[in-house]
Amino acid sequence: MREAVRVVIVEDDTWLAEHYMRVLRRSGYEVYHAPHALAAIDVIDQVVPDVIVLDVLLTGTTALALLHELQSHEDLANIPVILATNLANQIALDDVASYGVKRIVDKASMQPEDIAIAVRSVVKP
Amino acid sequence: MEAAKGNNNRGGSNQSDLSSVVVAAHELKSPLVLMRQLALDIASGKLSNEEQQRVVDQLVHVSEKGLRLTSDLTRAEAVQSVLFDMQPVNAISVCDDVADELASLYNAHGRSLKRSRIRALPPVVANRDLLRRILVGFADNALHYSDIDGVVELHAQLLRDKKLVRLGVRDYGPALSNKNWRQLVRNLGATQPVQARPQSSGLGLYIAHQFAVSMNGRIGAVRHRDGASFYVELPISQQLTLL
């Protein structure tokens, strides 16, 4: 039997993270949360998730630094990343695709279930 | 490492006014985005009673944060043209007020705001409401930057040689990067909001600076290995010494 799909949410707004977790758990995903990039590295190392949902403007180290770090590890470089951001209209998917970013979700216009739809769309069958 | 500014470079051009509006809009976007998501979550009808109550509480707190920001921003613009009452203020009681005001918010986040290193202090010359708003802003900000389950500290100390009292908020979270710290040091107290941390518009520091300057004080910051302190320094009231 296949294990549940593991999702790591990197989001420094704890209540927004809690909201994502609620939505994703309802959809049957196993969800973990890291409030900033440094914590994310530990959680990702430990969990080795199937998908990462990443905010762009993070406390401390930026999301871009985290993406660089992930790309430098062979076992983590291929984890699909979904950017969930208020800056969606300023980021082109083509510009960040080389960092493993598969989808960009606009926090300002998304529906709650969109985060689950985005995860579903990038998980390998 | 420490940085402080208290210059009186007030005023601004139409360009800077426009920048302030853009920054304010950016700063308000996050609470609005969260409120929208929480409201949609309630509307989905998929929440348990317990979850629904928690989400409603969060909605209230987030909207209050947004209202505080708009209120402070309006006030910060007004301090440029309005003279506020200045009087001897018991800084410790202001710290108590701030801790009481934010207790519910901190509790909702599962964190605590503690008063530490607060001993007997002489009164400072200040406007009580503006001082409270500065500290509420720092403490509100610290909540966002401190680690989950972390403690945030309100502290006060007498700088006897400078005849000042320093009131600050210490958070324990990811340290500021050298780049962000340099930017903060360079711009702290500027007439425009400056980005103090990666996802911050700097509007909170701009407001705090405006309030502090209007009270002949200054704001500053100290970088720690495990977080940061933001503080305001105000002159000691000489009233009692004249008795």
Backbone CA Rg of chain B = 18 Å
- Runs of chain B in which pLDDT lies below 50 for 5 or more consecutive residues are 7-13, 193-198
Name the CATH homologous superfamily of the largest domain in chain B.
Histidine kinase-like ATPase, C-terminal domain
Task: Report the span from N to C terminus of chain A.
Answer: 14 Å
In DSSP terms (H or I, runs of 4 or more residues), the helix count of chain B works out at 6
Per CATH, the architecture of chain A is: 3-Layer(aba) Sandwich
How large is the radius of gyration of chain A?
13 Å
Number of domains of chain A: 1
Kindly report the CATH topology of the largest domain in chain B.
Heat Shock Protein 90
- Assembly category: heterodimer
**Number of DSSP E strands of chain A:** 5
How does this model look, in words?
The complex is a heterodimer of chains A (125) and B (243). Chain A is an alpha/beta fold and 125 residues long. Chain A has a single domain (6-122), classed as Response regulator (Rossmann fold, 3-Layer(aba) Sandwich), CATH 3.40.50.2300. In chain A, 37% of the residues lie in helices and 20% in strands. Chain A has helices at residues 14-26, 37-47, 63-71, 93-96, 114-122; strands spanning 6-10, 30-34, 51-54, 81-85, 101-106. In chain A, helix 1 links the parallel strand 1 (6-10) and strand 2. In chain A, helix 2 runs parallel beside helix 3. With 243 residues, chain B is of the alpha+beta class. In chain B, helix 1 packs antiparallel against helix 2 (49-78), helix 2 crosses helix 6 and helix 3 (91-108) packs parallel to helix 4. The radius of gyration of chain B is 18 Å and the shape is globular. Residues 7-13 and 193-198 of chain B have low confidence and may be disordered.
